[in-house]
Write a structure and sequence with these properties.
With 138 residues, the chain is an alpha/beta fold. It contains five helices and five strands; from the N terminus they run ββααβαβαβα. 38% of the residues lie in helices and 22% in strands. It has helices at residues 29-32, 40-51, 73-88, 103-109, 123-135; strands at 10-17, 20-27, 62-67, 93-96, 117-120. The protein has a five-stranded mixed β-sheet with strand order 1-2-3-4-5, with helices on both faces.
């Protein structure tokens, strides 16, 4: 059994790839149970998005890569808050690696049906969709 005080609940890596913000999140599902009250994950994800905003000023979209096999309320809340940031800026949130068994959780919040929220098979697929949408006449 893990000593919960010593477990780092998550790590973030934020970068700009092909002009789009990409945030990779590695997290320990057990440790995130303790994040539900203070919303540390959502705060850090939104901060990462804002911190790299200057590096991708023309593209308000964001790709978040989840690297885990399960999600909980802390992860879903972080996606919800990041989606609000992207939408406010006129962009979309692309989620890579969201476990299929948990899609109902997104539907209950209305995220799965939101036109500014996408589940994507890979970062490359999300980047291609962004390129395709930006080249489509409006």
């Amino acid at each position: 059994m893990k000593d919960r005080k010593q477990v780092q609940p998550f790590s973030l890596n934020a970068k700009v790839q092909d002009g789009t913000r990409v945030i990779a999140v590695d997290y320990d599902e057990d440790a995130l149970v303790f994040d539900l009250k203070n919303n540390q994950l959502s705060g850090e994800v939104v901060k990462a998005y804002q911190n790299i905003q200057g590096e991708a000023p023309a593209d308000p979209n964001c790709i978040i890569e989840l690297r885990a096999t399960a999600v909980n309320s802390a992860v879903i809340y972080a996606l919800y808050e990041l989606h609000k940031q992207c939408k406010r800026g006129g962009g979309r949130l692309y989620v890579v690696g969201y476990p299929k068994d948990y899609i109902q959780s997104l539907s209950s919040l209305g995220l799965a049906d939101a036109p500014t929220f996408r589940l994507s098979a890979s970062t490359a697929a999300a980047l291609q969709e962004i390129v395709d949408e930006s080249s489509t006449p409006q």
